[in-house]
Amino acid sequence: MEETFQKVYDLLMLYGVKIVAAIAIFIIGRWVAKGFRSITERLMEKKNVDPTIAGFVGNLTYMALLIFVIIAALGQLGIQTTSFIAILGAAGLAIGLALQGSLANFASGFLMIIFKPFKVGDYVEVAGVAGSVEAIQIFTTTLKTPDNKTVIVPNGRVTGDNIVNWTMKGTRRADMVFGIGYDDDIDKAKQIMADVLGKDDRILKDPPTQIAVSELADSSVNFVVRPWVSIENYWGVYFDAMENIKKAFDEAGISIPYPQRDVHMYEHK
Q1: 30 and 72 both lie in a single domain
Q2: What does residue 61 show for φ and ψ, rounded to 5 degrees?
Q3: Which residue, among 185, 258, 173, has the nearest Cα to 209 in the 3D structure?
Q4: pTM exceeding 0.85
Q5: Do the Cβ atoms of 168 and 174 come closer than 8 Å?
Q6: What is the pLDDT of residues 144-169, one digit of tens each?
């Protein structure tokens, strides 16, 4: 009986110390990992890095250090960690292959947050969809279309195609086309259009408005009319100019041979 107690005592002394040491390694290592996470996030915040990226990198740092701490604690207990590391690597590879589409979206979202091709509130055209940006997340970007539909676009598709940002420059050119008959006075028509546009305070003076003959068509002389406006005034100026120039032509006796309109591929809210 005494020999049995002695063996138990020896085992407790041997493995008890190892267990205590492993627990100490885990607790202290976890505390250190949390400290590194906080330091990483603070450093990135000082560098004005996006909070989403700062939080993600901080969590990634914490998880990597925690895995290292767990392996060290298991090694202290005498458990062979070589095979564990190999299994972990194989599992990571399998997960990476299974989630390669999601990982591509994640990588694209990470790059978008860093380089900022657009921000929340911008009106953009990406992956064949046009709308106002409502949210930029790690895996997806959410747009609201002019007819109030919510469209969620995978970030891989956003960065995999051209990005058109209508808002970034702050101004936009309103392209319109007007036609007059061949018997009408070109200079008089140009002056009428200039007068109508000159009365609209929403039209910018710089860059100047362009009014020029663009085409001698089969039944009309066509003008391009290109005033510059701020983004928020685009459609208001466009619609008012179309109506007011038509009315001014009617009053001046200038004929419009057939309905003229500019074909827009994109709508702006």
Answers
A1: yes
A2: -60, -45
A3: 173
A4: no
A5: no
A6: 998 999 999 999 889 888 999 999 99
